[in-house]
Fold:
Amino acid sequence: MDDSTRAWDLTQETLARMGERWERTTYDTPAAYARTVMVRLNIDRIRRLRRELPRSTAGPEVAAPVEDLDGMAPWLVEALSSLSPRQRTALALRHVEDLDVRGIAERMSGSEGSVKSHLSRGTERLREHARGRGLLTTREG
Structure:
């Protein structure tokens, strides 16, 4: 079904719903009521489509492997590999590109709160790896 057919069906259903309720209700602005009905019908249609779509069986987001760059400590490669892709991205944007939280949120198309969470959890995981290797004492982190 193409978009024009869906639009026509949505328009017809909106007019039918308005006709059913026309006698029982007085409308000051019938166009506003029609828009409201049309928006709600479209939202219902989208929700129905989401329920009907098969769920992805790919599992959680798959992380790209961390490249071992010359001079990069093996523990750091291992630590970065343990981060989620979003944590790794947030940390890279913060420390490599020197972006603030707002800039990272814009680049990652997310909220500032989720960026703060990714930065905090990713940093803590890196600290845990460093402590496990004896590179960081408990007072330093």
Q: What stands out?
A: The chain has two domains: 3-52, 74-132. The mean pLDDT is 80. Residues 3-52 form one domain. The CA atoms of residues 14 and 139 lie 65 Å apart.
